[in-house]
Amino acid sequence: MKIMRLMLVICVLGVQSCVTTGPGGEKSFIAISDSQEVEIGKNVDTEVRAKEKILPDSTWQRYLAEVGQKIVKVCDRQEIDYHFAVIESDQINAFATPGGYVYFYSGILNMIDNEAELAAVMAHEISHVVARHSVKSLQASVGLDVLLQLALGEKSQGSWGQVAGLAMNLGMTGYGRSHELEADKFGVFYMQKAGYNPDGARTMFGKLAALTGDKQQGFFESLTSDHPDTQERLAKINAEIAQMPRSVDALPKFEQRYQEMKKRLPPAKK
Ligand code: ZN
Fold first, then answer.
1. pLDDT (tens digit, 9 = 90+) per residue, 127-156?
2. How far is the CA of 36 from the centre of ligand 1 (A)?
3. What is the mean pLDDT of residues 7-35?
4. How many structural domains is the chain composed of?
5. Is 5 inside a domain boundary?
6. Can you give the pTM of this predicted structure?
């Protein structure tokens, strides 16, 4: 009777059962509504802020949000609010959690050389939000039953705190090969749509791919030189760019603007 109960729950909650999750009008079955996803995102954000040090530089926080909003404006999921934060840490990582929360570590910002490269990572992360990758992964790992019990305010063997912890972890460690490839593909599309030269994706992913295994971290875990998926990801990004009208080659990278911002970052510890 699980299915019956699930259908009932979906009706009661008015949950969208099939939502657009990509630029090609891709559809996915998502059992969690936007408002529930945003609720998870808020819980995760509280955890992130308790665990990590937010960079105390409002200019940087504002700048990251500006670049983020440029991508949001052209993405296929605009009905939720997005939030952006720079975390002060040498980790070479960035991650998105449910509900439109996106985080960048200063470690990766120190590796970036122009705004188009920043936009490439940003668009990849926002693509995870658009495609509901974290919610899909949560459904798979927490179990739909537990999530729905929580959503209905029923007694449950799970808690929002546990869900938040898991969502944060999933965001930081990546969502697996197919979801990463999907976010790469959507990301390159969104960044050029937002007016950034997609060459920024090629150079940024190339730099990350040149990192060796001991620097393996987070969602770039599958982009390091010794990971079997790396060459495939790079080749697919290059193929996406090659298919675009060549007018994209004239799009800006905003190198000077980024270099000015980079001077404000805490220097990376060697
Ligand atoms: Zn990713």
1. 999 999 888 888 888 887 787 777 777 777
2. 22
3. 63
4. 1
5. no
6. 0.86
From ligand 1's centre to the CA of 180, what distance in Å? 5
Q: How far is the CA of 183 from the centre of ligand 1 (A)?
A: 6
Q: Which domain holds residue 92?
A: 34-262
CA of 5 to the centre of ligand 1 (A): 33
Distance from the CA of 62 to the center of ligand 1, in angstroms? Answer: 23
Q: How far apart are CA 92 and CA 224, in angstroms?
A: 11
* Distance from the alpha carbon of residue 6 to the mean position of ligand 1, in angstroms: 30
Instruction: State in Å: Cα 103 to ligand 1 middle.
Output: 12
pLDDT tens for 154-200 read: 777 777 778 877 887 787 777 778 888 899 999 999 999 999 999 99
3 found inside a domain: no
Q: Which residue has the tokens 């805490």?
A: 266
Yes or no: say if 216 and 92 are a contact pair by the CB < 8 Å rule: no
**In this predicted structure, what is the pLDDT of residue 11?**
42
Phi first, then psi: give them for residue 14, nearest 5 degrees. 65, 30
Ligand 1 geometric centre to CA of 12 (Å)? 33
Classify 182 as helix, strand or coil.
helix
Q: Are 223 and 205 in contact (CB under 8 A)?
A: yes
Residue 219 CA to ligand 1 center (angstroms) comes to: 5
In a domain, 28, yes or no: no
DSSP at 54: B
Neighbour order of strands in the sheet with 101-105: 83-87, 101-105, 94-97
Predicted confidence (pLDDT) at residue 213 exceeds the cutoff of 80: no
Domain presence at residue 17: no
Question: Are the CB atoms for 47 and 166 separated by under 8 Å?
Answer: no
Helices and strands (H and E) in the chain: how many? 12, 5
